[in-house]
Amino acid sequence: MAAMSIVKINVLTVPEEQRETLEKRFASRAGTVENSDGFEWFELLRPVEGTDTYLVYTRWRSEEDFQKWMTGMSQASHGGGGEQGRPKPAASGSTLWTFEVVQQGAPKQ
């Protein structure tokens, strides 16, 4: 069986008063991941009711592609002037989930 993609879901706890800030930050980062080698898909999922959890869904060709992107992001974030210029995080906590795609479907064309 051919290797399939991997999915990374970043589970963010976002207080209600920080939701707009989080969404604006994601909107302003548009394009930063899309040109990465092995990147396949991104979605920011807003909670509808009963939770303060946002899900950041990314899909990658391989774990190696994701790790290369993470390494590049880490280097880029440490290349500037340190913590002083960075805004306070909108999320109060995060957890990263990893899944392997074993089946998929799409609408018939």
TrEMBL record:
Alphabetical list of PROSITE patterns matching this protein: ABM
Region of interest called Disordered, as start-end residue ranges on this chain: 73-95
A Pfam family that the UniProt record links to this protein: ABM
Domain of life: Bacteria
Keyword Membrane: no
Residues of the ABM domain: 6-99
Keyword Oxidoreductase among UniProt keywords: yes
Transmembrane segments: none
GO MF annotations, alphabetized: monooxygenase activity
Keywords, sorted A to Z: Monooxygenase, Oxidoreductase
Protein name: Antibiotic biosynthesis monooxygenase
Native species: Streptomyces sviceus (strain ATCC 29083 / DSM 924 / JCM 4929 / NBRC 13980 / NCIMB 11184 / NRRL 5439 / UC 5370)
